[in-house]
Structures are given as structure tokens and as C-alpha cells.
Design a protein that fits this description.
Elements: H1 2-15, H2 33-59, E1 64-67, E2 73-76, E3 81-85, E4 89-96, E5 100-105, E6 114-120, E7 127-136, E8 147-152, E9 157-161, E10 167-173, E11 178-184, E12 191-196, E13 200-207, E14 220-228, E15 232-237, E16 240-246
Parallel strand pairs: 7-13
Antiparallel strand pairs: 1-2, 1-16, 2-3, 3-4, 4-5, 5-14, 6-13, 7-10, 8-9, 8-11, 11-12, 14-15, 15-16
């Protein structure tokens, strides 16, 4: 609406030049012959320039790293992925919709908790032995006193904690072929996975620290884009306005 208002005002201003001009040296009206066509051309070019500036925002692709004065950065990797940096680092998918920057956070595979399970030989044919080793995903160090909980399909639950070497052991019935496993510790994200229990197993659980993956998957943040060009990105979230400058690649 502002663009239409501006064009309308600009047209009114230009239309004023179509009326006869009076020279102070003569009382005879002077018709602007060549001036009229020149002004019309100038009018068209100005309107096209204005429309181009209006559409330039939607056509502009964000690329590279934009940072604020307090260490807050948005590093646009491609058309849909960015790296968010503040006191921590997280990755998010993003899209631009109606002058809004929408971030959808989801964890990189390298920052997801994982587990591996290897079959071992059972000593007792009447039971299954499950041995868990819980470790920090990034440092590879064992986590003592980590919680390990297993739940059967019949909702039978067994809970224990790892020893000083990060190991927890369970002996379960052969009648259950699958368990749901919960593992967590203070400062780590809870990890839930399903484990087949047809054989005895050694299971290694790699937990992710909150500082390695600080934002929950599925979190959505939204910013209003006040300005976006190749040098500067101005965003507003609520009452806060952030001015980010593009960082040059060294």
C-alpha cells in the first residue's frame, strides 16, 4: 500500500509539469514540447526503479554469515539451512515467508544420541543378559551414575544406574523379544530407543550434552525482516531489534 501511495504521489507531482509554463519575460504561454516526452520517460523509469526495489527483497537470497555486536550470528549455508550461533551453536532449517524469517531447529546427525548393540554368547538359556555402557557422545568418556531404564511390552520396568565405569547390567526373561530403553543423566538429553532382546547383548549408548545440542528439535523461531541486503540484515523479534552485518570471508 505504501508503494502504491508513493507512486500516486509521484504521478501527481509529474502531472503538474504538463501544464503550460509561463516565462517571466513573456506573457505568452510556452508549451513544453520535447520536455513533455522527456518527463514521461523519466516518470516511467522512476516507477520501474521503484517497483524493482520493492521486489528486490523477495528475489534476494541470503548467503554467508551475518553477526551482531554480542556474538549472535546467523550463518546461511544454502537456501534452506543455517547455523545459529550465540552462547551455543545449533542448526536450523529456514524459510522466508511474507518478510518473515522462520527458523525450524533440528539436530544434525553428529549431535544426536546414538546406540550400538552387539550380540554376545548367553551363559544361561533361560535368561538374557543385557550390558549397557553409557558414554558422552562428544568426549567418548564413560558416564557414572547415568540412569538406564528398560520397559517390556507388558510394561514391566527395571531401573538401575551405571557404575563408576559407566556400565549397567540387566538379566531379563527370554519371553520378551523387545524392550524400550531410556537413558539419561544430569546435563544430558534423555535418549529413548527400542532394543531387540532375542540374544544377549553389549549395548553402547552415546548421550548428547545439552551444551552440544541446546535447542529441542521441532522448536520454531520467527523474526520479522526489516531490512535485508548483501551487507546488512535487520531483524525484529517482539520488542527487540537486531542489526547484523555480513562478515567477510577471510
Amino acid at each position: 500500500m505504501r508503494a502504491v501511495w508513493f507512486i500516486g504521489k509521484f504521478e501527481l507531482l509529474l502531472n503538474c509539469t504538463k501544464y503550460p509554463n509561463y516565462s517571466p519575460k513573456s506573457r505568452t504561454p510556452q508549451q513544453p514540447h520535447h520536455v513533455s516526452s522527456h518527463l514521461m520517460t523519466k516518470k516511467i523509469l522512476t516507477i520501474l526503479l521503484l517497483l524493482t526495489s520493492i521486489n528486490s527483497f523477495s528475489q534476494f537470497n541470503l548467503r554467508g554469515k551475518f553477526c551482531g555486536p554480542v556474538g549472535f550470528c546467523l550463518d546461511f549455508k544454502n537456501d534452506s539451512l543455517l547455523e545459529f550461533r550465540s552462547a551455543y551453536t545449533a542448526f536450523a532449517k529456514y524459510k522466508i515467508d511474507n518478510k518473515k524469517l522462520i527458523l525450524f531447529f533440528e539436530t544434525e546427525d553428529s549431535l544426536r544420541s546414538t546406540f550400538t548393540a552387539n550380540d554376545t554368547q548367553c551363559i544361561d538359556n533361560e535368561s538374557i543378559s543385557l550390558t549397557f555402557l553409557v558414554k558422552d557422545k562428544m568426549t567418548n568418556e564413560e558416564i557414572p551414575l547415568a540412569l538406564v531404564l528398560i520397559k517390556s511390552k507388558l510394561n514391566d520396568t527395571i531401573v538401575t544406574r551405571t557404575d563408576i565405569n559407566g556400565i549397567a547390567k540387566f538379566t531379563v526373561s527370554t519371553k520378551q523379544d523387545e524392550y524400550e530403553v531410556y537413558s539419561s543423566y544430569i546435563g544430558y538429553r534423555q535418549f529413548i530407543f527400542k532394543l531387540k532382546s532375542e540374544n544377549c547383548k553389549n549395548v553402547t549408548v552415546n548421550l548428547v550434552n545439552y551444551t552440544d545440542n541446546p535447542i529441542e528439535d521441532g522448536t520454531i523461531w520467527e523474526y520479522e525482516i526489516l531490512k535485508a541486503d548483501r551487507k546488512k540484515l535487520v531483524l525484529r523479534q517482539g520488542e527487540s531489534i537486531g542489526i547484523l552485518s555480513r562478515k567477510k570471508i577471510k
